[in-house]
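To illustrate the input format used throughout this study, we show a single complete record. The first block contains the structure-token representation of the backbone; no residue identities are included at this stage. The design step must infer an amino acid for every position from geometry alone.
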């Protein structure tokens, strides 16, 4: 008898590409960006504008299990990581002859509504928080991955910086920053050393923590209405210049806790559920850390009405019994 050979784990990124070709929607939109992103023109490598537009359509319209499968696949060797890095055809969509300054690139991004709003989404939804379980302030990998992929196809298109890590960055550096060097490095650091984003990519790639990212994905992943509406429409952009600030967000009163309870199957404490009046009164439009112990300790007023009703009913019953006895 001959020894059975142990087959090593395959190339997940290659498997994801094959799976894409078996899905009509994925195959259609992948072909739609491969063509303009690889076709050379007389003056340049490709038509970058058409390439970017097709990439945006791919990530807006293809189900996450396929688009993310190709972009966030887990790898064990260079052949796999290089295929992952090549997903967006970086020679056209990402790389240029020279690297602009990151703050100049950010200024360019701010002149375009799509880029400006998606960059704001990225800063909001991929904000790291070392004290949280997921390393994300919002504890939501899905929102972070959605915000990151939303930048692909804009002037702020990010990609893996090499084939040996999960570090990503836009095509820019901090040369010629002058007095703004610290601000520039802070901006670049948010991409390259973002533990929230790295954990989100790893969690998707190896399926180790699906409970954190999966619930936020649309129930019917065959349509793009949810993701496009989330990205493009009714996005509060904040005051001019605020996009570079790393924003903090408060939990919506009551509704968010109920949603968290549904997602995690953990019973939420009603004492954390603030009424709209408390929400406004305590000025909780800033960071979630501003929620005071006083407002958290006070039970919601909505829980008092049924109790009061029971007390009144009990008293009226006792009174009617005592009257019946006396008569």
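Output of the design step:
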């Amino acid at each position: 008898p001959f020894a059975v050979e142990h087959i090593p784990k395959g190339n997940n990124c290659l498997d994801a590409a094959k799976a894409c070709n078996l899905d009509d929607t994925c195959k259609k939109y992948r072909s739609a960006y491969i063509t303009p992103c690889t076709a050379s023109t007389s003056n340049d490598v490709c038509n970058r504008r058409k390439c970017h537009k097709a990439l945006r359509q791919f990530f807006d319209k293809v189900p996450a299990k396929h688009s993310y499968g190709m972009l966030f696949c887990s790898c064990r060797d260079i052949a796999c990581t290089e295929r992952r890095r090549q997903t967006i055809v970086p020679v056209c969509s990402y790389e240029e002859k020279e690297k602009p300054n990151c703050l100049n690139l950010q200024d360019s991004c701010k002149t375009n509504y799509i880029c400006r709003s998606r960059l704001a989404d990225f800063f909001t939804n991929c904000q790291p928080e070392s004290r949280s379980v997921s390393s994300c302030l919002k504890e939501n990998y899905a929102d972070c991955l959605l915000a990151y992929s939303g930048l692909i196809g804009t002037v702020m298109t990010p990609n893996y910086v090499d084939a040996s890590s999960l570090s990503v960055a836009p095509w820019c550096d901090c040369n010629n920053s002058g007095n703004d060097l610290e601000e520039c490095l802070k901006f670049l650091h948010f991409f390259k050393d973002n533990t929230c984003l790295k954990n989100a990519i790893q969690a998707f790639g190896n399926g180790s923590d699906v409970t954190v990212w999966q619930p936020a994905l649309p129930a019917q992943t065959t349509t793009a209405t949810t993701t496009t509406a989330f990205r493009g429409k009714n996005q509060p952009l904040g005051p001019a210049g605020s996009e570079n600030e790393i924003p903090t967000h408060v939990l919506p009163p009551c509704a968010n806790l109920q949603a968290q309870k549904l997602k995690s199957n953990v019973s939420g404490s009603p004492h954390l559920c603030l009424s709209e009046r408390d929400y406004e009164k305590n000025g909780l439009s800033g960071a979630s850390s501003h929620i005071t112990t006083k407002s958290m300790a006070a039970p919601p007023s909505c829980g008092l009405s049924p109790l009061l009703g029971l007390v009144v009913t009990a008293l009226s019953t006792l009174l009617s019994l005592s009257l019946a006895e006396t008569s």
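Structural context for interpreting the output: The radius of gyration is 26 Å. Residues 1-8, 213-304 have pLDDT under 50 and may be disordered.
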